[in-house]
Amino acid sequence: MPGQRSAVLFAWILLVPALLYVAAIVAYPLLQTIHLSFTDASLRRTTDYVGWENYARIFDAEFATIIGRTFLWTFLSVALKMVIGTCGAMLLNAAIPGRTVFRILTMPPWIVPMAIGIFMWGWMYNGQFGMISGLMQRFGLVDGPVAFLAYGSTAFWATVITDVWIGVPMVTMYMLAAIQSVPQDLHEAAWTDGASRFYRMRRITLPMILPAAITMSMISLISTFNSFDPIWILTQGGPSGSTTTMIIDTYSTAIGSKRFGEGAARAVVICLFLSAFALLYFRAVSGLSKRMTS
Predict the structure, then answer these.
(1) 49-73 b/e with 16+ CB inside 10 Å = b?
(2) C-alpha to C-alpha distance for 184 and 245, rounded to whole angstroms
(3) Which of 140, 280, 133, 287 is nearest to 210 (CA)?
(4) pTM of the model
(5) CATH of the domain at 228
(6) Most buried among 56, 252, 278, 286, by the most CB within 10 A?
């Protein structure tokens, strides 16, 4: 049909600017990165093709440790964000006095520039004059100053807590919107039948907000996996690599050591991991949608 062909052509014309933007901003840099990952590019003028050498070099015992640390760091951060954010959303949705004030108080991590907020956490983690160490000494929890960023185990958790502080407001607002979208009639009918508040939350609220929780967890997972600022500003991957994640290792290799080819190979590996996460997400959402509609 001529009219249908014209509509399809018009639709493609409207898509051309977006396609050109994606090609220029996403596709071309990605292809260039993949090409660079097969070379020994550095500050030298000449660049040679090395095949899979960069990939073979990064998959050693040290990089395997970095991958495991990245997954652990991401899992802990995302899990805490989702739990704290969902609980906070439920509290903010409850009919409590001063609810508007509490909603406003969830916004400082968004209002304060990220770098300033991270520097603030760095001061609080300081062993000599940091607030956290001072309070622990005042209450007799420790005998002396605790330099949280000077030891591997405490530095790891310090970066996790800082990243959670940054990400919780987004999760809270998103889940609050999801909770408020649950039909109130369902709660009223269950309340009329004598269902308790916990039962209504478990049988009505949580199943209804599950799709939103899956979407939010996927967004948070990708953002956290690529999180750079909290770790770099606080520890730069130290001490002794205890907070080095894949994104920190990629930056240190490509920018710090000027081994652009190896850094590009690491960036491609990160892209593959995130693509796998996205595929699992779409499968989970598709399966969930089928179960909810059946």
Answers:
(1) ebeeebbeebeeeeeeebbebbeeb
(2) 44
(3) 287
(4) 0.84
(5) 1.10.3720.10
(6) 252
